[in-house]
Structure formats: C-alpha cells, structure tokens
Amino acid sequence: xxxxxxxxxxxxxxxxxxxxxxxxxxxxxxxxxxxxxxxxxxxxxxxxxxxxxxxxxxxxxxxxxxxxxxxxxxxxxxxxxxxxxxxxxxxxxxxxxxxxxxxxxxxxxxxxxxxxxxxxxxxxxxxxxxxxxxxxxxxxxxxxxxxxxxxxxxxxxxxxxxxxxxxxxxxxxxxxxxxxxxxxxxxxxxxxxxxxxxxxxxxxxxxxxxxxxxxxxxxxxxxxxxxxxxxxxxxxxxxxxxxxxxxxxxxxxxxxxxxxxxxxxxxxxxxxxxxxxxxxxxxxxxxxxxxxxxxxxxxxxxxxxxxxxxxxxxxxxxxxxxxxxxxxxxxxxxxxxxxxxxxxxxxxxxxxxxxxxxxxxxxxxxxxxxxxxxxxxxxxxxxxxxxxxxxxxxxxxxxxxxxxxxxxxxxxxxxxxxxxxxxxxxxxxxxxxxxxxxxxxxxxxxxxxxxxxxxxxxxxxxxxxxxxxxxxxxxxxxxxxxxxxxxxxxxxxxxxxxxxxxx
Length: 503
Known about the structure:
Shape: elongated
Number of strands: 5
Helix content: over 70%
Protein name: MFS transporter
Main location: membrane
Distance between the termini: 66 Å
Low-confidence stretches: none
CATH superfamily of the largest domain: MFS general substrate transporter like domains
Membrane topology: Multi-pass membrane protein
Structural class: alpha+beta
CATH architecture of the largest domain: Up-down Bundle
Number of helices: 22
Order of helices and strands: HHHHHHHHHHHHHHHHHHEEHHHEEEH
Pfam families: MFS_1, PAS_9
Family: Belongs to the major facilitator superfamily. Nitrate/nitrite porter (TC 2.A.1.8) family.
Largest sheet: 5 strands, antiparallel
Strand order of the largest sheet: 2-1-5-4-3
CATH class of the largest domain: Mainly Alpha
C-alpha cells in the first residue's frame, strides 16, 4: 500500500514545492504597491528564488538516494516555514531578496522525486511515471492563478501566510505516508561525480534541459508582471494567462514521457527544438497580444514535451548514478530559468523591446537541434558497431581500391590477424595459393555484374594454416550507384566439410 501511494504523494509534494517557489512572482504586482522596488530591480525579485532552487537540486538528488525521499521532503518542508513567514512580514526590497533566495528550496525538491519514483516501476515505464511526477509543476499555475485572487480579498501578506498551513499538512502526510523502507543507494558522492562528469551525454542533456525547463521557469516568473506592464492587462487576467501557459506545459510533460517510452526519445527532441526555434522567432517580432499568446502556448507545448522526454533519457543513460545525474541535469534546468528574466530586463532597458532576447532563445534552440541530430546519428553508429562486434561471422571492409579499412573481433578470432595488422593491407595477404588467378578474375567479374559474390574459398591464417572459408563479398554503393566500399563476411567451414565427406 505504501509503495503504491508514493507516486501521487511525491507528485503532490512537488505541487506544493512549486507553489512556494513562484510565490513572489505570483504576488509581485501586489507586493510592489506596498514595497518600493526600483523598476530595473523587479527581475531580481522573481529570479532570485531560482538560484537556490537550482543549486540545491544536486545534493537533494544525491541524498534522496542515500536516506530516502521521505526524510528529504520532511526536512525541506520544515525549513520552508521560515522564509515564508519572513516574506509575509517583509517591508523592504532586501527582505524580499533574502526570503526569496530561501524559497528556492521549494523548487529544489524536484530532484528528490525524480530520483525516488522510478524505483517503484519497471524501466519501460520510467518516462511516463517521471512525466506524471513532473506534472507537479502545475503548482506554479495554482499559485500564479489563485494567489492573486486570494490577495485581492485578504491582502498579499495574509495570502503568503496561508502557505504555512499547506506546508503543515504535507509535513504530516509525509511523516505518516512516506516510504520508510525505500531502496537506498549508498555509492559515495565523489564516486558518482567521477563516473558521470566526463560523460558528454550528461552535459548535452543538461543543455537541453537548460532550455526546456529553463524556458518554463523563465516564462512562469516573467509573464505575470510583463503582461501587466507591456499589455496593460488586469493583474488577475495576467495570472490567468500565465496559469494557462503552465497548464499546457504541465499536461505535455507526462505526454512527452509516455511518447518517449514508445518512440525514440531523440527523434522527439528534434521536433521539440524545431518548435522552440520557430516560436522564438515569432515572439521576437513583438506581436500583438493574440500572436504573443500563440507564441507562448507554442513554447509551453515544446517545453512540457521536452521536459518529459529528457527525464526518460537521464535514468536510461545513468542507471547507477541516477541521483547525481538527475540533480545536475535538473539544476541546469533551474539555472535556465534564472538568467532569461534578467537578460530580458537588461535588453529592454537598452533597446526598449524584448526582440533580441527571444531571438537568442530561437538561436540557442537551433544549436540544440543540431546537437540532438548529432546524438541521434552517433547512437545509430554506436548500435551498428555493437552489432558488428557481436556477430559471430568475420567481417572486413575495404575501400574501392581494395585496402582494408576495418574488421571485427570475429575476423581476428578466425584469421589470427588483429585489426591493426591488416588496416591498409589488401585481403590477398591471406590467399592460400590453392585458387588460380582465373578464379579471382571470375569472382570480381561476378561482383561487378551482380553486386555480390559468395562461395567456398581456401585462405591462410596468420600461423600459416590453410582453412576452407565460406565468403560473401558485397559491393557498397552510394546514391549515384558508384561503388564506395566492399564488405566481406567470412566463416570457417573446414570442420563442416570434413564431417560431410566422412558421412
């Protein structure tokens, strides 16, 4: 029973954590009426919670494996009482920065569940269950929509204090319903870091999540105040539109994970970053509210889909280092939400518009698209290499002039020659002398006419021993029909022939 409720419990934990994480940005239009905040400093108030929310994801992901999600959630929620109360009585810009920094703990809990939840499900469901858990970012939509509505009734300070009651409820729930017997992973932190930091896939996934989750966080904290200032919308209307952005991204996250369980994830990321590039260009033209909404919904669609896909890939690549890998990738995603609001505010102060900032998003997404395509073809090449190395038949490939350019382990086992010994040589070095020149002339004539030849042939091993070989030679051609290479598959049939002759 306890194990079955971990996914819903931890998803709701994430909802609460994200509700708290965006508390300041949700209420900023109200807060700035009571606290003087320089216009050029507004972006810092919304961006500062992202700092700790990103940095703490690494240790929280690691310790979730070490001591279990239940303890980490309990400690995190108890600690969040202090910054929430501090913000509720804040009366200066500095108070907001200090309190906001420690609100980041609410966003950091993401790496706890994304490390813990997959332990309860088979590998083929990891994309979907991580997508369901990640849908807990709907908490940002709840705060963005509900907090302004409540604040109009009871004021922003009392609204902030209501979150302390919510925290108390979830401290109790985690104490009684959290899994006390969760499977622990005791690998030391330094060992896990050493095993992943040189892996290029970790940093590529970090970049991709920097864009997908970073754009989600950035738009979430930047939209409420931006829509009020730039389009002169009512505060509740701006909150509702931002909640719509978050809802779309949230719904797409489990869909992205579900699709990644069924379709090659890198193919999905190609579509995701193509969409980012196009919608970034649309937003860079500073459109009307209608086209701006289309662009934002498009970004929400791509960001939610990408978030779900990436956290199908992370546990797949890093099964034994899931805690630290989840922490690093999710931390980079959080930092991806820290910089854009500051950069947009800075560019606006220089140019009077946001076009350059949105165009930069488009260009970074385009660069990521190129990297995803590269990863996809690298994986296909790696798969091909694995198949070649695993096959029991000897393989050698020559260029069109007949020089050997590659072999496989089975070739070495069969002939005695290592790959280094034969690279650049002609396969004639293995001729036994039992076939006449006319035999080879006829063989190559057949290859030129039919594109392949197969049959029995005597060859000589490195130790000088002759053996009977079944050989298939195929011409590899390009799209224009020109021969690029020749591939030979060979197997030893000497013993097989002896048995047949005796029977």
